[in-house]
Design brief:
- About 1% of the residues have low confidence.
- The chain has a 4-stranded mixed β-sheet. Strands 2-14-16-15 form a 4-stranded mixed β-sheet, with helices on one face.
- It has 433 residues and is α+β, with helices and mostly antiparallel strands.
- It is 29% helix and 24% strand.
- The chain has 2 domains: 214 residues, Enolpyruvate transferase domain (UDP-n-acetylglucosamine1-carboxyvinyl-transferase, Chain), CATH 3.65.10.10; 212 residues, UDP-n-acetylglucosamine1-carboxyvinyl-transferase, Chain, CATH 3.65.10.10.
- α6 packs parallel to α7, α8 packs parallel to α10 and α8 runs parallel beside α12.
- It is globular and about 65 Å long.
- β17, α10 and β18 form a beta-alpha-beta unit.
């Protein structure tokens, strides 16, 4: 188990380029299974979850060529479905939550797919019903082997109308990938419409799919017989961008976030501005000036600001942990309401141990009383419970007085590529051991 030793208090300075989007990568890479022709994907992040998925595709027989540091060419001409029945597949696929994304493409192209119960973050219940109900609406048969924890879907797909029970990003992506090769018209209402879904749809259209309503929650997909190859470049990771904004504020640092695709960030910049963090847009770069103090806004009637997660175009739940830690050194009070995952706020006990003033109201809500730099957080030893909480603790450690140790940083590595090296280039005192 790897750890970080972090000496806090350094002010950082410089430019940083966000990696390709992790959440986009998992569905885009899975989509290569829909065609026998080459698909060239650029700006792929070098992180554990993505590399694991690429390795899984290689085991399935996909030809993979690395064309540069951030680009791969995938050719799924021959896929070995027998690999799905092996212990090797069960072990590898169950260790990666993103492995669920290969089901839709396999079902669409080969009429069958199976998957062990996937792993991932320990942040509460993350059900998969939306995926499988969508497949069933398209005509697939669903079976769950409770003894071996294996899901199986099979059958010929036919277009259908469906109203999703939740606007699940991964569920929507999986159903879209199944529907593009189904016979007839599929209508998906209450579809997720995140930029990552838009990216997937636009890529599939370039491959020959027929999709209407991209960017909305109502998608109409006319199935086609086959898809071709394409080139695709992924968006910069919006979660990394938000993390760097929070890092700059907490450490009183001057940081420029390069090539941020500001047009695809939604309300993320404005949410940090509501915490009092100053941002300047310079072309497609975000400049965060060094700030000694930043003050949380109140609502117009003077009541305490609430920041809650919501489906897109609302605020992404993956950044609530970053907003929470950023608020600990602001002036003012904010209520953080995490609606989607019941365990994601449990890392705040570590922040409280560091000196933050936080009231954990229940598994979904925490009230943060900002310290306004009256005193620094103090360095402690802690363990990263998941990707986003891990980075939040890292941000706290970089701003703290003294040295912190963060264990289980493999969780952070799952979502942030070479984070220690990239932060050291900005002046952070961080060592991996």
């Amino acid at each position: 188990m790897a750890s970080f030793r972090v000496k806090g208090g350094n002010r950082l300075k410089g430019s940083i380029v966000p990696q390709g989007a992790k959440n986009e990568a998992l569905q885009i890479i899975s989509a290569v299974l829909l065609t026998s022709e080459p698909v060239h994907i650029h700006k792929i992040p070098n992180i554990r979850d993505v590399i694991k998925l690429i390795d899984l595709l290689a085991d399935l027989g996909v030809q993979i060529e690395k064309t540069d540091e951030e680009s791969y060419r995938f050719t799924a001409k021959e896929v070995n479905l027998k690999f799905l029945d092996t212990e090797d597949f069960k072990e590898k696929a169950s260790s990666l939550r993103g492995s669920i994304m290969i089901l839709g493409p396999l079902l669409a192209r080969y009429g069958t797919g199976k998957m062990p119960r996937p792993g991932g973050d320990k942040i509460g219940r993350r059900r998969l019903d939306t995926h499988f109900v969508g497949f069933q609406k398209l005509g697939a048969q669903f079976d769950y082997d409770s003894k071996n924890s294996f899901y199986t879907v099979s059958g010929k797909l036919t277009g259908a109308y469906m109203h999703l029970d939740e606007a699940s990003v991964t569920g929507t992506a999986n159903i879209i990938m199944a529907a593009v090769l189904a016979e007839g018209l599929t209508t998906i209402y209450n579809a997720a419409c995140e930029p990552y879904i838009q990216q997937l749809c636009n890529m599939l259209v370039r491959m020959g799919a027929r999709i209407e309503g991209i960017g909305s929650n109502l998608l109409k997909i006319e199935g086609v017989e086959s898809l071709g190859g394409t080139d695709h470049t992924m968006l910069p990771d919006m979660i990394e961008i938000g993390s760097f904004i929070g890092l700059a504020a907490m450490t009183r640092s001057e940081i420029t976030i390069k090539d941020a695709r500001i047009d695809m960030l939604g309300i993320i910049p404005d949410t940090f501005r509501r915490l009092g963090v100053k941002l300047e847009f310079r072309g497609d770069d975000i400049f965060v000036p060094a700030q000694e103090h930043y003050e949380i806004e109140s609502f117009i009637d003077g009541s305490i600001l609430t920041i809650a997660d919501a489906i897109w175009p609302g605020f992404t739940p993956d950044l609530l942990s970053i907003v929470l830690v950023t608020a600990t050194q602001a002036k003012g009070t904010v209520l953080i309401h995490q609606k989607m995952f019941e365990s994601r706020l449990f890392f705040v006990d570590k922040l409280i141990d560091m000196g933050a003033q936080i009231i954990l109201c229940d598994p979904h809500r925490a009230t943060v009383i900002g310290l306004d730099r009256a005193f620094d957080l103090k360095g402690i030893s802690m363990t990263s419970p998941d990707i986003r909480a891990g980075v939040s603790l890292l941000i706290a450690a970089l701003s703290a007085d003294g040295t912190s140790t963060i264990h289980n940083v493999e969780q952070i590595d799952r979502g942030y590529q070479f984070i220690d090296k990239r932060l050291k280039a900005l002046g952070a005192d961080i060592e991996r051991f």
